[in-house]
Amino acid sequence: MPAYDVLRVFCAPNGGYGNELGVVRDGSALPGRAERQALAGKLGFSETVFVDDPERGIVDIYTPTLRLPFAGHPCVGAAWLLDVPELRTPAGVVGARQDGEFCWIEARAEWAPPRTLRRYATAAEVDDLAVPPPGEWIYAWAWEDEPAGRVRARAFPGRDDGIEEDEATGAAALLLTDRLGRALNITQGAGSQILTAPQPGGWVEIGGRVYLER
Fold first, then answer.
1. Parallel, antiparallel, or unpaired for β 19-24 and 5-11?
2. In terms of domain of life, where is this protein from (predicted)?
3. CATH of 111-210, one of 3.10.310.10, 3.20.20.80, 3.10.129.10, 3.40.50.2000
4. Which of 7, 37, 90, 168 is most buried, taking the most CB atoms under 10 A from its CB?
5. Cα separation of 67 and 65, whole Å?
6. What pLDDT score was predicted for residue 159?
7. pLDDT per position as a tens digit, 143-167
8. What pLDDT score was predicted for residue 124?
9. Contacts 24+ apart (CB under 8 A), 114-123
């Protein structure tokens, strides 16, 4: 098995929570898609990133069962780890920047895979949701404080791969930000934090804290 790092992306202010991400820095160790898919399935993270060129930021992203042209928390984590100004994904070039404790990326809503954005009346309703059966990918959300842009959210991938709930999902936050047209401060899962901000020309910035787990 090739060496890989484990990051936590979109951590809370106290450094807790965040969504785990596997990063194989030497993508040449597993050049084939089938090999990469098999390793992503074995590791079992919601996403695993293979770095094909660390200087140019060329990355390849996999869930345990499929390859993704773009995904939010893998891009934030990879940008932080590689410390590059941009990442090159199959979907397009993702801008990246470091700003104090936050790492930010810039992407487009049309790059994100389809998600069902399901609004609830209160944050308590979102907290009380049971994991739905496999099927559609659901991003459940409610306003905690609408004037302040604070959102409570949970993400249910609906896949039959053992991942019932994603702790923090940048692509879904990107879609919600694009739909609402405003900056958001999202608390997702058990306590992860995702920040977003619309930008000119249909771009959206997504930011969060990243920690090296091992």
1. antiparallel
2. Bacteria
3. 3.10.310.10
4. 168
5. 7
6. 77
7. 999 999 999 999 999 877 778 999 9
8. 98
9. 115/139, 115/171, 115/172, 115/175, 117/141, 117/172, 117/175, 117/176, 117/179, 123/152
Using the structure block, give the residue that is written with the tokens 């140019």: 56
* Structure tokens that stand for 212 in this block: 């090296």
Please give the backbone phi and psi of residue 76, each rounded to the nearest 5 degrees, phi first.
-60, -45
